[in-house]
Every structure is written in structure tokens, then in C-alpha cells.
Amino acid sequence: MILSDTEIRLASVRLKNFLSFYKGTVEFDPGLTVITGPNGSGKTSIFHAVKFALGSNQREKRYSKWSDFIRHGASSAEVELIVALDGQTRKLVRRIDRDGVPRAYIDDKRVKAAEHNSLVERMGIDVDNTLVFMPQERINALRDMDPIEVRKLVEEGTGLEVLRDRISSQETQVARDKRRLETAVSEAQVVKQEIELLQKDLKRLFRKRELQARERK
Ligand SMILES: Nc1ncnc2c1ncn2[C@@H]1O[C@H](COP(=O)(O)OP(=O)(O)OP(=O)(O)O)[C@@H](O)[C@H]1O
Ligand SMILES: [Mg+2]
Fold it and tell me: Residue 105 has what pLDDT?
């Protein structure tokens, strides 16, 4: 989530037998990174590698099986991400072995998919959001998308959706508190009137006692 308090930066991605990569490391400097290269040079492979290593289980049609990510002739594929998370360096690895099952590792320790996903979630990244990772085959689909659908994607991808929910629950709370205040104010009004009446009675009572005292003298 872009709006989260977490400071996160992808420092590098290392690919091993992943798609067209035998071995390769891409370093990311702070700021915007643009990857360019001729057709078939491996740009989309890097895209898939990052998305895969962040725990996504979505794949394009041309990579319908996990084993499609393994470089032809190799038996396993691996992607390693070095992420700077709130000043700490974390290593996220995800690999596909011969059995075609993806396995995840955090800082060299084998972890369950749920643990891996929860770290990525804490980073505020919505890996399966089309705007966060826009597949090549979906670019034209986005152009034809209904604006409301696009807004939904942007809100989900940036975390604005959570803010929208928070704003609406705050609005409900404010309306409830306002109604409570109005009730309290009108109750106070009634009590004030009652006090005024009681004060009148009290005055009369004092006057009566005064007169009785005078009579006794
Ligand atoms: N399992 C695989 N093993 C080896 N090579 C593969 C495998 N799967 C795909 N490739 C090859 O990887 C190469 C890189 O493809 P990729 O889609 O990453 O290129 P690209 O730079 O995104 O190209 P484009 O500009 O056309 O989008 C392609 O030549 C493709 O044939
Ligand atoms: Mg491509």
C-alpha cells in the first residue's frame, strides 16, 4: 500500500534459471527504474520474477504451469529479492523445484506461503492488483476498462480503499456522536426547566417559613 507508513524499497532481484535467465541480478537504484531492451531480451521475465517472488500465484496464459517458469533444460528456478524494509534488509526467495511446487524462504529460512504473504502484505504490496503488476496482455484491456473499475483498482492498489472505509466509519461515528450530543442538550434543557421550577418552590417554601416564624413571635 503506497499510503502505508512502511518504508520499502526493492534493492535487487536475482534470477536463477528463471524463464530466459541462466543467472542474472538486476539492481534497483532509489527512485524510478525503467527497464528497456529488444524484444525477447527478458524484460517481462524480470516482471514475472518480481511478481512471483512476492508470492503471486497469478501467471499469464503463456506460463500456465509453474514449471513454465523454469528455464528450458534446467530442473529448478529461483528468484531472490533484496528488500529494504524500514531500514532493515530482508531476503525473500521463492523457488520452483522439479516437483513444480513453489517454496518460499525469508532470510534463508523456509516459510509457509501464508507467512511469506503476510510479510509482503505488511510491506503494503498488493501483488495481484492489475495496476501494481500490469501484465503485458492486460495493457489494452485497461484502456477499454470502465472508469469505475479503474478507480477500484487504483484504490485497492494504493490502499485508498482502506482509507475510504475508515472515512465512512468515522462519518458514521461522528453522526452517532452528534445525535448523542443533541439528546444530551435537550435532556439538559429539561433538567434546567425542572431546576427553575424547584427553585420557585424553594423560594415559596422559604417565604412560608419566614412568615410562620414571624407569626410565632
Ligand atoms: N522456460 C523458458 N526457458 C528459456 N527461455 C524462455 C522460457 N520461457 C520463455 N523464454 C524466452 O525468454 C525470452 C524473454 O522473454 P521476455 O518475454 O522476458 O522478453 P521481453 O524483453 O519482455 O520481450 P518483449 O519486448 O517482446 O515483451 C523469450 O525469447 C522467450 O522465448
Ligand atoms: Mg515483454
Answer: 98
Q: Where are the domains of the chain?
A: 8-139, 159-217
| 11 confidence band (pLDDT: 50, 70, 90) | very high
20 CA distance to ligand 1 centroid (A)? 6
CATH of domain 8-139: 3.40.50.300
Residue 38 CA, closest ligand 1 atom number: 25
User: What are the strands, taking DSSP E only, across 72-139?
Assistant: 77-85, 88-96, 102-106, 109-111
Decide if pLDDT at 145 tops 60: yes
pLDDT digits (tens, 9 = 90+) for 85-140: 888 999 999 999 989 899 999 999 999 999 999 999 888 888 888 878 888 877 88
Pocket residue to mutate for ligand 1, from 22, 43, 65, 139, most atoms within 8 A of Cβ: 43
Query: Is the CB of residue 157 below 6 angstroms from any atom belonging to ligand 1?
Result: no
Judged by its nearest atom, the ligand closest to the C-alpha of residue 40 is 1
Sort residue 87 into left (φ over 0), alpha (ψ -120 to 50) or beta: left
pLDDT band at residue 2, thresholds of 50, 70 and 90? very low
Question: Alpha helices of 70-159 — where are they, by DSSP H?
Answer: 113-122, 139-143, 147-158
Amino acid found at 65: K
39 C-alpha to ligand 1 centroid (Å): 8
